[in-house]
Design a protein that fits this description.
The chain is of the alpha/beta class. It is built from 13 helices and twelve strands. It is globular.
Amino acid sequence: MPAPIAVSIGDPAGIGPELIAAAWAARADQRLPPFFAVGNAAILRDAAVSRGIELPVAPVSDLSAPAAWFDSALPVLEVGKASYRPGHPSAAGTRLAAQALERAMAAVGVGVASALVTGPTAKAEMAKIGFDFPGQTEFVAAWCEARPEDAVMMLAGPSLRTVPITVHIALAEVPNRLTRRLIVDRCIIVARALQADFGIAKPRLAICGLNPHAGEDGRMGHEEARVIAPAIEELRAAGIDASGPHPADTLFAPHKRASYDVAIAMYHDQALVPLKTLDFDHGVNVTLGLPVVRTSPDHGTAFDIAGKGVASPGAMIAAIRMAGEIAGRRAAA
């Protein structure tokens, strides 16, 4: 069996702590692999109370046998302190989130954890404490000494997998950032990851156009002919089953989704809007192209509903399950 999964607590003012507690409470019904939380036991207990969950915790420093604790208590690796104030982010809480991320990543690095699941953090709050990365994905990539462009974000749910070629940039910048090389390199990473981590022998990649109607033969833009179509030709020449450019307004219809394994989008919302519409409560953010396994629930801190007991734990449960499945495939390879 692979080592247990490290789950960083995320911002303690958000919904991360209560969802970790809810995932542990559902561990048997959901058949989750063993995991341990990295953060603060008191915060996790308080978050569990807000949902009416009885959460026994086992503060640990030795992670050599957490499965022995997992059946009866949630193992917690303590890394810092902060108060539990749902909906009220603080510098202390944000520092705890950063410390938990760093310690969880270190646990994966030394092999006491087989995968990393990151609880949600707020980018603006992390920037205030000097966290020098656009997000947690970039931190994980830097820790692995990988180029940022080699860490590819895939959003995966029961109905759909999507990958945005460009991510957290302004929409006006997208046409200038799109290059044939960027599309080809990222699609190769996606195809290899679907084979190795998801067990898909010959992945089918459906590649979106950038413009309405995929440019409609140049009437609505030239990026399809100038950049995207040549990238698709190069991918096909490399033996990858790539199709397109497809008009994005029809690619996500039910009858279309059956024809591919992943939709490659040109920008953030082109990928995330359909995924969150179809699979909001079960969507997982998976980082492809790195030597470590990293997943995250595909939602944010939700400060507005934190502590109210209404946030769905579905995405957290799905992220833990997917991390375990990928780690298991890698261990068996």
